[in-house]
Amino acid sequence: MHSVENQIVDSSFSAIINAPIEQIDIPGWCFTLPEKDYQECSPAHIAAGFTTAPDGRRMSINVETIGGSLMVQHYVETLGEKDHLILDSHSDVFTPSGRTTIHVTWELSAKRIDEARCEFTNRVRSYATDEMLAFLDRQGIPFDIFRTQRQPMSIAHNKGETPLFAANIERAALRNG
Questions:
Q1: What Cα–Cα distance (Å) separates residue 145 from each residue in 3, 66, 131, 141, 163?
Q2: CB of 2 within 8 A of CB of 9?
Q3: Is 39:168 a contact under the CB 8 Å cutoff?
Q4: For residue 154, how many C-alpha atoms fall within 13 Å in the half-sphere facing its CB?
Q5: DSSP assignment string, 110-135
Q6: What pLDDT digit, counting tens, does each position of 80-100 carry?
Q7: Residues sharing a CB contact under 8 Å with residue 84, sequence separation 6 or more, in sequence order
Q8: Which of 27, 104, 146, 164, CA to CA, is 20 to 30 A from 155?
Q9: E strands in the chain
């Protein structure tokens, strides 16, 4: 499912967090993020919450619009270290032409710069599922055309939310420190 041929976007942006790495807890931030804070990190963010997956792993539920499509993301924690969080989601996408799915890997990390600062990186990779490929095929939309149209919207979304996520993580780190 995670093949290069099916990859839609691989987007990564970084921002500075003015807090020591020792005070950063990305999973702690992600799984307690108030909905209002999530909404303030992008005009496209609609709702957020957290729950657990059927196997007991932590899950972040995010609702947002990207490129005119409503997305409901079910991010399950696959790596949870204080300075590195990887989440995988089999997300629902609601388009004007109907509903389909997309696979999204969301990776958040922080690297120490010095005693008081870190570099935060927000990386998003998305992949077409077999369901999405069939959905596009039924509409006569070639995957490479879909990918070319989708990339700028996904990249712009990530670029916009990254510094705001970093600022929010910074506030949480300084509050908890």
A1: 18, 17, 17, 7, 30
A2: no
A3: no
A4: 23
A5: EEEEETTEEEEEEEEEEEE-HHHHHH
A6: 999 999 999 999 999 999 999
A7: 26, 107, 108, 109, 110
A8: 27
A9: 7-17, 45-52, 58-66, 69-81, 84-95, 98-114, 117-128
137-150 tens-digit pLDDT: 999 999 999 999 99
> What CATH number did the domain enclosing 114 receive?
3.30.530.20
Both structure tokens of 11: 């987007």
42 within 8 A of 62, measured Cβ to Cβ: no
Write down the pTM of the prediction: 0.96
- Between CA 158 and CA 162, with CA 161 as vertex, the angle to 5 degrees is 80
User: What is the tally of structural domains in the chain?
Assistant: 1
**Domain containing 118: what range?**
4-176
- Strand order from edge to edge, sheet including 69-81: 7-17, 117-128, 98-114, 84-95, 69-81, 58-66, 45-52
The predicted pLDDT at position 121 comes to 98
